[in-house]
From TrEMBL:
<dbReference type="InterPro" id="IPR002350">
    <property type="entry name" value="Kazal_dom"/>
</dbReference>
<keyword id="KW-0964">Secreted</keyword>
<dbReference type="Pfam" id="PF07648">
    <property type="entry name" value="Kazal_2"/>
</dbReference>
<feature type="domain" description="Kazal-like">
    <location>
        <begin position="128"/>
        <end position="176"/>
    </location>
</feature>
<dbReference type="InterPro" id="IPR013783">
    <property type="entry name" value="Ig-like_fold"/>
</dbReference>
<feature type="domain" description="IGFBP N-terminal">
    <location>
        <begin position="54"/>
        <end position="137"/>
    </location>
</feature>
<dbReference type="GO" id="GO:0005615">
    <property type="term" value="C:extracellular space"/>
</dbReference>
<feature type="domain" description="Ig-like">
    <location>
        <begin position="178"/>
        <end position="275"/>
    </location>
</feature>
<dbReference type="Pfam" id="PF00219">
    <property type="entry name" value="IGFBP"/>
</dbReference>
<dbReference type="GO" id="GO:0009966">
    <property type="term" value="P:regulation of signal transduction"/>
</dbReference>
<dbReference type="InterPro" id="IPR000867">
    <property type="entry name" value="IGFBP-like"/>
</dbReference>
<dbReference type="InterPro" id="IPR003598">
    <property type="entry name" value="Ig_sub2"/>
</dbReference>
<keyword id="KW-0393">Immunoglobulin domain</keyword>
<dbReference type="GO" id="GO:0001558">
    <property type="term" value="P:regulation of cell growth"/>
</dbReference>
<dbReference type="InterPro" id="IPR007110">
    <property type="entry name" value="Ig-like_dom"/>
</dbReference>
<protein>
    <submittedName>
        <fullName>Kazal-type serine peptidase inhibitor domain 3</fullName>
    </submittedName>
</protein>
<dbReference type="InterPro" id="IPR036179">
    <property type="entry name" value="Ig-like_dom_sf"/>
</dbReference>
Amino acid sequence: MSGMRVIVFLGVCLTLHTCRAFPNQLSDLRDDLMEYEQLDDELDGGTQQNWTRAAEECGRCELDQCPHTRGCRAGVVLDSCGCCMECANLEGQACDPGQRNLFYGLCGTGLRCQADPRPAGTAGGAEEDEEEVCVCEEQEPVCGSDGVTYMNKCQFREAAFSRAELRVKGKGPCKTVPVIKVPPQSQVNGTGSSMVFLCEVFAFPMALVEWRKEGRDVVLPGDDPHISVQSRGGPLKFELSSWLQIEGAEPGDSGTYRCVARNNLGSVSASAVLGVLGAEELSSYLANRVSVMEQLMDATDYDNDSY
């Protein structure tokens, strides 16, 4: 390649009539070529250097020395030396684009290497570090014979690797009674604070989510102006997220709140307790919590010291 670059460089020089003093500028020409090669390597991300280094480290390919591959849920690919087989990368794992196994490895069956498709702001999202990961080529969900919905064919393939009896029951999600993936959490706070309960539900057909307070035969918010309910689809397919918010909470808002999800196949619910305390009660409650935490930390330190 260096000889070809010299020829191209000389051709340009002769065309532009800038090499009339070529014998006196040989040193400059050599410096220019070295600078060009260095820039070319930088633009190429050091790929050529990586391949040269890999070739030196790999040595002669001896198939009988290759390690046995086991438990490769996404299949096998050639290693960076192009000699032995190794486990391919699974969905979500970092990868090397194209067909060259340089650093992260290659994607397995039914996967392609591309920018992380997860929403911006999530851990490992594309806008954080532009990392490329293995993404399933078939993103339509499938229903397994075990009654579980697999969000794409690759997730089903991974599960079927260790369960030979698993089959595709049908395309699309399995019809199921709602499942509460994230239930509301009990909480305690002071008078006048803003309280929020979250309930995330998976279901197909999609579920209807209602909020109720024990002791009141009414679907919230009812006619109470300081209570509001909001719902939207997500965060994943066939999921629904619902929030119950209480603004300017009062002691009378204390009680048990229940998230109820239903579709035409059945219903399910999950509850959480809300405690709204006055200033003195809240101070006493927080002091007790701190005391409990300190006792737990002391017990943990004692256990560690005993070893």
